[in-house]
Amino acid sequence: MKKESIFRGVCTALVTPFRDNVIDFNALESLLERQISAGIQAVAICGTTGENATLSDAEHKRVLRFAIECVNGRIPVIAGTGSNDTNHAVDMSKYACDIGADALLIVSPYYNKASQAGLIKSYTTIADSVNKPIILYNVPTRTCVDIDPKTYEALKDHPNIAAIKEASPSVAKSIHTLHLCGSSLDLYAGSDELTLPLLAIGGAGVISVVSNLVPEAMCRLYHAFEEGNIKEAAKRQTDLYRLMSAMFLDISPVPLKYALSLMGLCQEDVRLPLCSMSRENKQTIQSLLKSYHLISSDQ
Fold it and tell me: What is the C-alpha R_g of the chain?
């Protein structure tokens, strides 16, 4: 059953900016406007990159509402509302739908280590409770659970389950998933390094970390592929590789927030248990941003 795509192209997994441990809504508005001006196709709010695990429920709701009101329908807003507690995910998902989110990003339950049967029941319970499309989010390095292709197959016909964000490094697994699910679920790369490989096998786009820094460049990569200019898309993918990789020199989004701070876009503040990077890693990020002409050479 083919469902309408939430987006095709590049969605930025946006950071949640803090200043002195308080959400910086002025910076958040500027970040959103920058993404929209760059031609990004969607934004994901309060996902892993948005440090949703350390937001209180009140903060989480306020950030979602602020982002939805700020974007005002110009591009889809995808709300991160997953949890290791299915009931809590249901409550947050209902709230996001009520305030106008266009779709939901639901990470597989972390810490509890659900079985594949438990994943099916949890995702079905959430999908049954909402009226907006859901992106299933598989990130086994964070959750210690890898969603099996056959689990995607079991969920593919639910009318509210529309897509997968796949952050497993295995392209072979994604090929298996597409074989089992066909056109029933859109597949989005959940790792910037796999953007072009997953587009090449039939993926619909990427939910990107590095596009926080270089939204135009990621959009150009996608458009080159869509226009059939594979050599150009491959060059853009490889040219961005060092920047993509550097965003994981430390636990994400620590390197990303430091890079954004050097660019004057927000503070580098993260919330515990995340903390500032080593001086060596900071120097690496600084040098890299200079080489990409994202900051001046005298910074």
Answer: 18
pLDDT of res. 53: 94
- Which residues in 23-49 are b (16+ Cβ under 10 Å) and which e? bbeebbbbbbeebbebbbbbbbbbbbb
DSSP 6: S
Q: What angle do CA 92, 93, 96 make, to 5 degrees?
A: 85
Quick check: 244 and 218 in contact, CB under 8 A? no
- The tally of CA atoms less than 13 A away on the side-chain side of residue 34 is 20
What are the structure tokens assigned to 14, written together? 């946006």
pLDDT tens, residue by residue, 71-91: 999 999 999 999 999 999 999
Residues with a known catalytic role: 137, 165
Task: Please give the model's pTM, rounded to 2 decimal places.
Answer: 0.96
In this predicted structure, what is the pLDDT of residue 188? 98
Rounded (10°) angle between helices 254-262 and 279-291: 50
DSSP-derived letter for residue 240 is T
